[in-house]
Write a structure and sequence with these properties.
Distance between the termini: 41 Å
CATH architecture of the largest domain: 3-Layer(aba) Sandwich
Strand order of the largest sheet: 2-1-8-7-6
Number of helices: 16
Largest sheet: 5 strands, antiparallel
Number of domains: 2
CATH superfamily of the largest domain: DD-peptidase/beta-lactamase superfamily
Radius of gyration: 26 Å
Helix content: 40-55%
Low-confidence stretches: none
Shape: elongated
Number of strands: 13
CATH class of the largest domain: Alpha Beta
Oligomer: single chain
Structural class: alpha+beta
Order of helices and strands: HEEEHHHHEHHHEHHHEEEHEHEHEHEEH
């Protein structure tokens, strides 16, 4: 198990037993959700996917659809026209509150139900069917696969959505909603009834975090300024009347839904999603809030955290075939090294290792590790700092490589990684790269059956 998955699995195992919160029941179809369901997924900017728990379950997207439909409307009409109909201020009220601006009738923001209904109505289309298909196609592009509607959830929402209809009529009367009320609300219900898996939401969140480019498919879904706008509204309004506390504690743009979905975006790092039906009083999944709070603290993800100037993390991946040590060798030894030197791999990293940088380094380790037995020299001489969570990830990855039959050397002037557990470190430490590379060659030579003298 890779360290990112291991971190998600550890959170899943530890938080699964929590019994706080209540499953939403004001939409009858949602009341049947299993409160024990709990899944997490993370997608990095490299398109790598990690997950833990119940990740195959389908559930309706509900309000998690709102930032993506908002992005669609802004892309189609421009920010000025959308802002004329929908504000961007936190309401400080519940998701289904009547929160309209005096004089204009504008809803407070596109993340509350009133604002989302208007946003849905703004998507240009020939008719209601065309409008929904544009929305479904947009959400599918964000997810990287075709998404469908859960018709049972849609019928349940349509049968019980009187409060949303009332909001729509109020806005129609105030002038902020221009379309037909019944058609608009039904389209909104269908939008909320699109079914997803938690991994779909992670890809969607990662697309926003990646400036509008889906990191899995490579397709540009929206332009980067639109992604920035959507993330900004999520940061200030996405968690309803808990948005201020969320931004203070977690510091990531996020959006929740009453089916138990929750996404968060770490710009230029990753998108993460959680599905857990029991909700707190603000309508946010209890386990999801706790999991993302802990991840933010563990990996220093808060938007206000200063990570320093970004530089390439992995600066060199080579072997002793191309860059041998300067140690004198006999002709027989040199012959062995010329033939087998690809089994001694050298990876150099630099800068501060936080989540994204460590994920890049782990990917390089996985991609370049030779077939076991092999020897890996990790040159950390130019690494200035390793975050606590990142050190745990890297240490676990190195331990896994050792368990697979490799031997590891770390070259660094100062110790940056602590041993895992109470036993000795599963690697050999050296003060400099030259000594570590020579050690790798010596270990390779010691395993060959050819004479070396």
């Amino acid at each position: 198990m890779d360290p990112v998955t291991a971190s998600l699995a550890e959170l899943h195992d530890r938080l699964s037993s929590l019994a706080d919160g209540e499953v939403a029941d004001y939409i009858p179809q949602l009341a049947s959700a299993d409160p024990r369901t709990f899944g997490l997924a993370l997608v990095s900017m490299s398109g790598n996917c990690y997950h833990a728990g119940d990740t195959d379950d389908l559930f309706s997207i509900q309000s998690v659809s709102k930032p993506f439909v908002y992005a669609l409307a802004v892309s189609a009409l421009g920010p000025t026209e959308v802002a004329r109909r929908v504000g961007a201020e936190p309401s400080g009220e519940a998701f289904n509150a009547i929160s309209l601006e005096p004089g204009t009738g504008r809803p407070a923001n596109p993340m509350v139900n009133a604002g989302a209904i208007v946003t849905t109505s703004l998507v240009p289309a020939a008719d209601a069917r065309d409008r929904f298909e544009r929305i479904r196609a947009c959400l599918s592009a964000f997810a990287g696969r075709s998404l469908d509607v859960d018709e049972d959830v849609y019928r349940s929402e349509a049968a019980t959505g009187d409060r949303n209809r009332a909001l729509a009529y109020l806005m129609r009367g105030a002038g902020s909603l221009a379309g037909d009320v019944d058609e608009t609300v039904r389209t909104y219900f269908r939008q909320c009834s699109i079914q997803v898996r938690v991994a779909d939401l992670a890809v969607m969140a990662a697309t926003l975090a990646n400036g509008g480019v889906n990191p899995v498919t490579g397709d540009r879904v929206i332009e980067e300024p639109v992604a920035v706008r959507a993330l900004a509204v999520m940061a200030t309004c996405g968690m309803y009347d808990g948005a201020g506390e969320w931004l203070l504690r977690v510091g990531l743009p996020a959006k929740s839904g009453v089916s138990g979905g929750l996404i968060a975006c770490s710009p230029a790092r990753f998108g993460i999603a959680v599905h857990s039906p029991p909700l707190d009083r603000a309508g946010n999944p209890v386990r999801g809030v706790l999991a993302l709070t802990e991840l933010s603290e563990r990996f220093a993800l808060h938007l206000m955290h200063q990570p320093g100037r970004h530089i390439a993390t992995v600066t060199e991946v080579t072997t002793t075939l191309d860059h041998p040590s300067y140690r004198a060798r006999t002709p027989a030894q040199r012959a062995v090294l010329d033939r087998e030197g690809h089994r001694v791999v050298v990876i150099r990293a630099q800068g501060a290792l936080e989540f994204t940088e460590t994920e890049h380094l782990l990917h390089a380790l996985r991609q370049s590790a030779p077939s076991p037995p092999g020897w890996i020299v990790l040159d950390l001489d130019r690494v200035t700092r390793i975050a606590l969570g990142s050190a745990a990830m890297l240490g676990a990855a190195l331990a896994d490589l050792v368990a697979a039959g490799h031997e590891i050397a770390i070259a660094a002037r100062e110790p940056l990684l602590d041993p895992i557990g109470d036993g000795p470190a599963p690697w050999t430490a050296f003060a400099g790269r030259e000594e570590a590379v020579a050690w790798g060659e010596d270990r390779l030579l010691a395993t060959t059956s050819e004479p070396t003298g």
